[in-house]
User: Which sequence fits this backbone?
């Protein structure tokens, strides 16, 4: 490959340069230089004593004494002899030269060889974004959409497209922001109000906050019988400690729903959870699941993936999967929950009961 | 060509060259072989080139968001502003270690280039010792903290930099601090080289001083900037917390300050040789210790360190080898060094010895306060924390006599001084101190009883420094023209010393003002409400959300009126960085003279109100201005002619070729 050829060339040139740095001084004749640094310093000190004496900083007698002392040292320093060059200089140079040629590449080879990836070129982000995206490369697509949105924050459609993906990735705060932007830019509809409120609920860990509840109510005002809004209003009632009210809201929702509405099954599961009677409606075919239900369930799954401490939420997730006819996912969720609550016998017991009830045992 | 692999390979080659540098020159020095000694310079330059190349490659990877490099993935984000992409390079462990070595090799390269008039043997030994340090740190980087580790496939987005670190102050703080830390490696290398050679004289001290001074100036700048960063970024309103990280940089500073002063004695009088060498070793040891404390994670938790000890143990090994090795060498060789001139206790030397004693004692106090909790936790598992009171009660009392002596020192003659005569010359300084104390008592109400005395001490230090210069140029005693001529003729080191000493006084003034007279109010405010703080009327206009490039702010918009006149707005903010959903606090400042009004926002309430914390800090800016003055004094001293006296100049041709050191 062309890229890897370049890197090998670079490695060769750099190694040569390193060896050259050692060989160069060896090849040059060096005059045996003996410095007389001390002499310079002492001469300078003498001058300074003179300056200080002139400035009146030291007395005449002290200056004289100092002068004598420094002069004595000056003479001693001048008499110091140069070190004589040792024997065998040529042999030593050869040794160092050969050592440099052998040792430097050897160290480099051993150290880089064990840790380096010479065939792996750099991956600047801009180049990769220009490249054709690999199908299924979710992260790549997201990065493109995000940079597009960063440049065009007024693109409401873009925010609407990216929001459910954020939910699925568990990036709840980003989902809230995207939903809010879409609502602000494109104007309120029942769907957008409910979507934002749903994201807010997820970001509050599944609690329907006052803010979110207001959003769902706006959604219901814009479109009566909006299923998602209705579901969450019911959930809010349940969380307020009014399960009967929740059951009533959901039952009404089911009763008024078109018979083939895909979310009926899920609502019935919820009603059953609260101990209410099943509301008779024909069960919907599992294959057609409305996107909002999907998003709700996936959002729940995403939340549990990041923070799985809420046992009841796990139960709800398993139920939802079972109702949607996705037994595999339900079993996987049961397995995760078992792992998560391995030490707690009562919860494992409840999980076993749930598996029996839903008939998703075995694999 | 800018493949991360090039950077990796350059680091490896630098290691190979560092090994050559640690062996060949010193072998040459032992044998008196000039050719071998001459390899030191080009090899040092080569190392600098390779390490710099790898740093540039790493920086490039940050700039183009190359997330195939794990370090970039962990510490950067494609939407981050350009400057923080760059500062992100050293905002993390691996990158900061590369920067450390860049600076280390830079100093070696400077010795290679500007050290032409150094004795060849000394230069070879110094560079060899630098080579040992470089080898140790390059091995550390390559073995435990490789910044060029790769990921396949490369992630599409990075994990951002710690948002607290996204600040211009912190972007330049570490490099300054590192130049300081690493700069002391020069004094260390010179000390060890002298011990190996058994030759230690005035020339040696003259050579060490500029390097120490450079390191000291940068360390001062680094500490000062770190303190200012903590002041306005952390939102706590304090400027020094006696935090172990801060102490880690303060310890080498104290030892380095002592080293600077003892080097003067050695240069002028050839006294205190052995002590100076010890200080040089200790100063760099404390720099290494600072690196260890901050880098090993031992500070956050001894437990975390024990769980993942690879890095910590490696640094600990470096610490043991270098500190233990140099101290052993010291114990073995120091007795062979000849002691220099004698002096009476009351003399310039005596004052400098006193300075050294107090500085090292205060350094020891900080050392104990910082390490004792760690040692205790390691040995018994008990977690204690040594708080500011310990430091205030040990460090503070040590500083007072130091500052009193600091003013006397420059007035005393070398060898034997006359204390009474000096005290007489300092009459004005004493008078200023008493006046300042009385005036402070008269003007202020409340505040600690001792505070005015410290104001007096600050004025004594400042006026004393001015008197030092006045005395030297015989101001008002000689004709003005003579004084002017003397002022011009005065060595810049003398100016530098006086100015740096005055800087200490200025800083003390700021510290006293901030500590003793600050006002603090915490209120829960609703939009439209007002509060009066230190003569300002502040009204909360509202809470405004603001979208930043990679964060979201909730800005509390405050309008400030002073005596009924509009005095601008303050906009403190609660900030959330989106990528990490990490909240931070952005304080807002308003400066009046040297004093500051400081607003730090708390959490917004559900009813549209927000908690706001107001501080009024009189004279607080003087703390940092004082350090700037100290640095300026250091710079003046660095530019002094005598530091640049080079080798003898046998011919005009050599003179032209000789390059001046240490600039």
Assistant:
């Amino acid at each position: 490959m062309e890229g890897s050829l370049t890197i090998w060339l670079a490695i060769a040139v750099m190694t040569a340069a390193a060896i050259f740095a050692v060989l160069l001084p060896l090849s040059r004749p060096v005059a045996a230089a003996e410095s007389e640094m001390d002499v310079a310093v002492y001469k300078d000190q003498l001058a300074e004593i003179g300056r200080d004496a002139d400035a009146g900083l030291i007395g005449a007698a002290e200056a004289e004494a100092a002068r004598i002392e420094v002069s004595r040292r000056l003479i001693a320093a001048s008499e110091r002899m140069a070190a004589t060059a040792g024997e065998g200089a040529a042999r030593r140079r050869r040794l160092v030269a050969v050592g440099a040629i052998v040792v430097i590449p050897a160290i480099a080879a051993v150290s880089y060889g064990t840790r380096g990836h010479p065939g792996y070129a750099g991956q600047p982000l801009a180049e990769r974004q220009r490249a054709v995206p690999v199908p299924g490369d979710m992260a790549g697509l997201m990065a493109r959409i995000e940079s597009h949105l960063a440049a065009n924050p007024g693109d409401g459609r873009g925010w609407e497209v990216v929001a459910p993906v954020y939910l699925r990735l568990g990036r709840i705060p980003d989902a809230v922001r995207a939903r809010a932007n879409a609502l602000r830019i494109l104007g309120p509809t029942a769907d957008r109000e409910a979507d934002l409120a749903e994201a807010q609920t997820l970001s509050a860990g599944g609690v329907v906050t006052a803010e979110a509840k207001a959003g769902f109510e706006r959604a219901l005002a814009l479109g009566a019988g909006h299923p998602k809004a209705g579901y969450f209003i019911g959930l809010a009632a349940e969380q307020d400690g009014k399960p009967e009210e929740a059951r009533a809201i959901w039952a009404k929702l089911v009763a008024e729903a078109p018979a083939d509405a895909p979310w009926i099954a899920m609502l019935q599961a919820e009603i059953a959870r609260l101990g209410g009677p099943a509301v008779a409606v024909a069960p919907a075919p599992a294959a057609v699941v409305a996107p909002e239900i999907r998003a709700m369930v996936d959002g729940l799954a995403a939340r549990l993936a990041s923070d799985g401490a809420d046992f009841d939420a796990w139960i709800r997730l398993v139920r939802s999967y079972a109702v949607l006819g996705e037994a595999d996912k339900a079993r996987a969720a049961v397995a995760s929950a078992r792992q998560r609550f391995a030490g707690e016998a009562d919860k494992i017991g409840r999980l076993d009961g749930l598996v029996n009830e839903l008939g998703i045992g075995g694999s | 060509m800018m493949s991360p692999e090039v950077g990796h390979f350059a680091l490896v080659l630098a290691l190979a060259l560092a090994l050559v540098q640690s062996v060949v020159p010193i072998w040459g020095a032992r044998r008196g072989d000039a050719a071998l000694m001459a390899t030191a310079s080009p090899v040092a330059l080569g190392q600098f080139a390779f390490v710099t190349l790898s740093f540039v490659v790493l920086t490039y990877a940050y700039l183009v968001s190359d997330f195939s490099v794990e370090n970039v993935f962990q510490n950067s984000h494609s939407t981050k502003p350009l400057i923080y992409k760059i500062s992100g390079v050293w905002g993390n462990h691996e990158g900061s270690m590369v920067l450390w070595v860049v600076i280390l090799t830079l100093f070696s390269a400077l010795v290679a280039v500007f050290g032409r008039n150094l004795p060849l043997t000394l230069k070879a030994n110094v560079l060899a010792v630098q080579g040992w340090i470089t080898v140790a740190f390059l091995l550390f980087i390559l073995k435990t903290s490789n910044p060029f580790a790769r990921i396949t496939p490369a992630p599409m987005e990075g994990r951002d930099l710690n948002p607290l670190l996204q600040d211009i102050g912190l972007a330049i703080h570490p490099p300054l601090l590192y130049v300081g830390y690493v700069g002391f490696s020069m004094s260390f290398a010179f000390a060890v080289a002298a011990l190996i050679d058994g030759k230690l004289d005035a020339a040696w001290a003259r050579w060490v001083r500029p390097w120490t001074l450079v390191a000291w100036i940068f360390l001062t700048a680094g500490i000062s900037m770190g303190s200012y960063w903590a002041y306005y970024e952390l939102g706590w309103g304090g400027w020094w917390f006696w935090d172990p990280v801060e102490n880690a940089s303060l310890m080498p500073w104290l030892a380095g300050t002592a080293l600077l002063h003892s080097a003067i004695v050695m240069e002028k009088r050839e006294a205190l040789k052995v002590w100076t060498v010890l200080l040089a070793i200790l100063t760099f040891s404390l720099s290494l210790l600072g690196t260890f404390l901050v880098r090993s994670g031992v500070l956050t938790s001894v437990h975390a360190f024990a769980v993942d000890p690879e890095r910590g143990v490696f640094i600990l090994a470096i610490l043991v080898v270098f500190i233990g090795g140099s101290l052993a060498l010291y114990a073995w060789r120091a007795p062979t060094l000849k002691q220099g001139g004698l002096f009476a206790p009351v003399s310039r030397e005596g004052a400098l010895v006193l300075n050294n004693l107090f500085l090292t004692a205060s350094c020891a106090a900080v050392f104990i306060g910082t390490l004792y909790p760690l040692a205790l936790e390691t040995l018994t598992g008990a977690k204690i924390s040594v708080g500011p009171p310990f430091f205030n009660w040990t460090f503070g009392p040590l500083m007072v006599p130091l500052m009193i002596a600091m003013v006397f020192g420059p007035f005393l003659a070398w060898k034997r001084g006359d204390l009474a005569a000096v005290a007489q010359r300092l009459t004005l300084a004493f008078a200023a101190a008493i006046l300042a104390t009385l005036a402070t008592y008269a003007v202020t109400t409340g505040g600690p009883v001792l505070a005015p005395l410290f104001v007096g001490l600050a004025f004594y230090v400042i006026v004393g420094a001015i008197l030092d210069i006045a005395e030297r140029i015989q101001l008002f005693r000689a004709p003005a023209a003579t004084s002017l001529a003397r002022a011009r003729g005065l060595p810049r080191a003398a100016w530098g010393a006086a100015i740096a000493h005055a800087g200490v006084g200025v800083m003390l003034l700021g510290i006293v003002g901030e500590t003793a007279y600050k006002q603090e109010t915490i209120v829960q405010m609703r939009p439209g409400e007002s509060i009066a703080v230190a003569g300002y009327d502040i009204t909360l206009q509202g809470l405004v959300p603001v979208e930043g490039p990679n964060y979201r702010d909730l800005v509390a918009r405050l309008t400030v009126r002073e005596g009924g006149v509009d005095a601008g707005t303050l906009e403190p903010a609660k900030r959330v960085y989106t990528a990490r959903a990490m909240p931070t606090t952005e304080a807002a400042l308003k400066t009046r003279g040297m004093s500051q009004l400081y607003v730090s926002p708390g959490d917004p309430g559900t009813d549209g109100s927000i908690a706001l914390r107001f501080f009024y800090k009189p004279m607080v800016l003087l703390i940092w201005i004082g350090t700037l003055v100290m640095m300026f004094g250091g710079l003046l001293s660095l530019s002094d002619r005598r530091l640049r006296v080079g080798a003898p100049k046998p011919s005009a041709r050599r003179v032209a070729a000789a390059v001046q050191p240490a600039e």
Notes: Chain B touches chain A through 83 residues (CB under 8 Å).
